[in-house]
Amino acid sequence: xxxxPANEASNEASYEGSNNDSNDAWVVLGKVGKVHGIKGWVRxxxxxxxxxxxxxxxxxxxxxxxxxxxxxxxxxxxxxxxKQQPKGLIAxxxxxxxPEEARLLNGATLSVERKALPPLESDEYYWYQLEGLTVINxxxxxxxxxxxxxxxxxxxxxxxxxxQESIDDRERLIPYLSDSVVLKVDLDERVIRVDWDADFLx
Length: 202
Fold this sequence. Notes:
By secondary structure, the chain is mostly beta strands. The chain has helices at residues 5-9, 99-103, 127-130; strands at 26-36, 41-46, 59-63, 74-85, 88-93, 109-113, 134-137, 142-151, 156-161, 172-176, 182-186, 191-194.
């Protein structure tokens, strides 16, 4: 992992598609895409900082939309082979050996237990830790909460969604720059303080 703390946080990205009750112990790393070929291979959409970061966790939990798989909403999948292609990562899961079986996995989110993630330095954070934090600027103005994180070429960006406590109803894109924009991250208080004026256009 390299880059800013948030960039390093993106290595195991987000809560997309998760969390309720016992699911709080799980972090989503990606999801299953379309079938590739006739031997059960599928495309894997990775939310990790590099597309192959998900391969550090060959044993994954697959969660399915209940409307698609009402009797089997969760199952365990094990990656037993993979290939990097120009269009992204493809993988084969143990026991999935034909396109019919592989097609049933399409759209499933892939998660690992939070405790399986490697520890970070004290000033580094995974994206899932930042999502949901309240964003307050240097003037004690509330912008809302971090809805999601975006990875760009230069730096990561916080997508901040307005709440009832916000000074306005704007959605803001605020760069995660620990040396200039981000003043403090307080996970206990669920607050991130930023040097960012309310009238900035981003």
